[in-house]
């Protein structure tokens, strides 16, 4: 799909989106037009037992929070990381230093703290951003516009300092949302191995002629989601901070919308959309932040908002880990062949499914409620359908399937490559992948002691990158067999090797 679209055309799309974003930001500072499209309804919105009337308002904040933010989340689940990275206007702005040939002054590899802790940093920035949204950004248009401009400037400075996509990989507070929502891949996302020209997914590239492109990767991140998002997903699955992002995001989503009710004392405040044009929002940070059971709780909103989000994040993170352990034990007890990462991947996918559907119970709800009831049902059904298809696609996805498919595409021959004949340390067998490909399977091996009879179990680790094989990389040595390079190699079952057939190098 998107991999068939040239970089020249995608660059034009990013230009258009970037200009539209700047127009929206400008409207947050000065907008004499959109107020005419809203009207005073005279309806009363109860906020902490006070009646606040709907007045005409500028629509910039409404467009940003009710249309653009929910659309970004839907794009991620539907089209995946690849599509988002190729259209993201913030990425466009972050690359302006490179466009002006400004060389980065530092190597990201020298900042090991950032490399080790970027997941914690990004989640912290996301947390702070949501707190600022509750306190200031929802309806204070000037502050929201300034915040967005500061974000653009921060992205440009980061890339100017470290180069590449350092902002996207290490700083961007939206990156945790991408990680959680996309998971192993978007519903319609292109796999990296399907790229027609060797430039995969959203890999950095430039146009060198009308029909030709070349990669401009600076190796700022490994593994890189832009080169192979699924490979990065599997490798980062057990990375420190990954569980905080996964389960903490669920808490952020639930906590953010729950706070709207805890603050106003009802659902009407949020569903009416009054929050995105509430007058004098900044003046209310010292007023009671909770209104529960028709009673104001004397905790300032400045404290109540981060307290609520923090409690929900802690709750979902703590119990998410507990439930994950229970599920892993259950899954392995019922299927002993599950890989090490598979149960955790499945539980992560389930938590994403929950977070996505909870998000769309509330996100943009004020706009959906303006539609006839039948269209409200259509939209809600669409959200459930997309997330259900995504969960079904991701649930049975395994690291082994990914690696076998990747090698099948990179080496589609059914014949034994003559360059590998007589090579030491390589085990070769035929492997059928999804009943479509029969390819020579070249694996690195580990040997571990089996039962008391001295049998040896061999666990294969298929990790061949881009089909570039080094015949001299010795892992195992197998007793010589006469192999004719013109014939297909018979299938070998590693579990049935005898110990006498194998000697460790």
3D architecture notes:
By secondary structure, this protein is mainly alpha-helical. The chain is 50% helix and 11% strand. Strand 3 and strand 4 (213-215) form a beta hairpin. The model is unreliable at 412-505 (pLDDT under 50).
Describe the structure concisely.
With 505 residues, the chain is mainly alpha-helical. 50% of the residues lie in helices and 11% in strands.
Which properties best describe this structure?
single chain; 505 residues; mainly alpha; 16 helices; 11% strand; disordered C terminus
Helix content: 40-55%
Name the average pLDDT. Answer: 79
Counting DSSP H or I runs of 4 or more residues, the number of helices is 16
Main-sheet strand order equals 7-8-9
Shape: globular
Order of helix and strand elements from N to C terminus: HEEHHHHHHHEEHHHEEHHHHHEEEEE
**Major sheet description:** 3 strands, antiparallel
Derived from helix and strand composition plus strand pairing, the structural class reads mainly alpha
Strand content is 5-15%
- Contiguous uncertain segments of 5+ residues: 412-505
Spatial extent as radius of gyration: 27 Å
Head-to-tail CA distance between termini: 46 Å
Number of strands: 11
Quaternary form: single chain
């Amino acid at each position: 799909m998107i991999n068939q679209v040239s970089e020249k055309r995608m660059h034009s799309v990013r230009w258009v989106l970037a200009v539209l974003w700047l127009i929206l930001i400008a409207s947050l500072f000065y907008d004499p037009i959109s107020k005419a499209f809203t009207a005073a309804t005279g309806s009363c919105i109860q906020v902490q037992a006070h009646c606040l009337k709907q007045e005409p308002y500028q629509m910039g904040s409404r467009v940003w929070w009710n249309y653009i933010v929910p659309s970004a989340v839907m794009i991620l689940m539907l089209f995946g990381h690849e599509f988002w990275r190729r259209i993201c206007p913030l990425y466009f702005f972050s690359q302006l230093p490179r466009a002006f040939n400004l060389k980065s002054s530092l190597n990201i590899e020298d900042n090991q703290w950032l490399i080790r802790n970027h997941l914690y940093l990004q989640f912290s920035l996301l947390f702070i951003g949501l707190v600022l949204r509750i306190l200031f950004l929802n309806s204070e248009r000037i502050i929201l516009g300034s915040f967005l401009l500061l974000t653009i400037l921060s992205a440009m400075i980061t890339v100017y300092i470290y180069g590449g996509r350092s902002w996207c990989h290490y700083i961007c507070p939206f990156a945790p949302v991408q990680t959680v929502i996309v998971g192993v891949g978007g519903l319609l996302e292109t796999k990296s191995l399907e790229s027609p020209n060797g430039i995969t997914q959203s890999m950095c590239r430039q146009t060198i002629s009308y029909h030709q492109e070349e990669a401009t990767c600076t190796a700022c991140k490994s593994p890189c989601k832009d080169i192979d998002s699924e490979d990065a997903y599997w490798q980062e699955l057990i990375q420190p901070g990954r569980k905080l992002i996964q389960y903490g995001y669920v808490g952020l989503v639930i906590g953010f919308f729950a706070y709207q009710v805890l603050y106003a004392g009802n659902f009407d405040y949020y569903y009416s959309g009054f929050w995105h044009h509430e007058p004098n929002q900044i003046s209310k940070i010292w007023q009671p932040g909770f209104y529960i059971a028709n009673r104001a709780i004397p905790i300032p909103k400045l404290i109540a908002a981060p307290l609520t989000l923090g409690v929900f994040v802690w709750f979902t993170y703590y119990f998410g880990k507990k439930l994950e352990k229970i599920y892993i034990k259950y899954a392995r007890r019922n299927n002993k062949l599950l890989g090490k990462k598979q149960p955790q991947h499945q539980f992560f996918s389930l938590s994403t499914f929950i977070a996505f559907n909870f998000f769309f119970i509330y996100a943009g709800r004020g706009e959906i409620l303006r539609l006839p009831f039948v269209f409200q049902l259509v939209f809600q059904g669409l959200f459930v359908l997309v997330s259900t298809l995504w969960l079904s696609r991701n649930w049975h996805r395994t690291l082994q399937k990914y690696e076998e498919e990747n090698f099948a595409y990179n080496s589609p021959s059914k014949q034994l490559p003559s360059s590998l004949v007589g090579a030491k340390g390589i085990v070769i067998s035929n492997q059928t992948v999804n009943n479509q490909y029969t390819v020579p399977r070249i694996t690195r091996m580990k040997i571990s002691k089996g039962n008391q009879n001295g049998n040896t179990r061999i666990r294969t680790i298929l990790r061949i990158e881009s089909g570039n094989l080094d015949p001299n990389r010795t892992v195992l040595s197998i007793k010589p067999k006469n192999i004719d390079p013109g014939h297909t190699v018979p299938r070998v079952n590693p579990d049935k090797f005898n110990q006498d057939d194998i000697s460790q190098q």
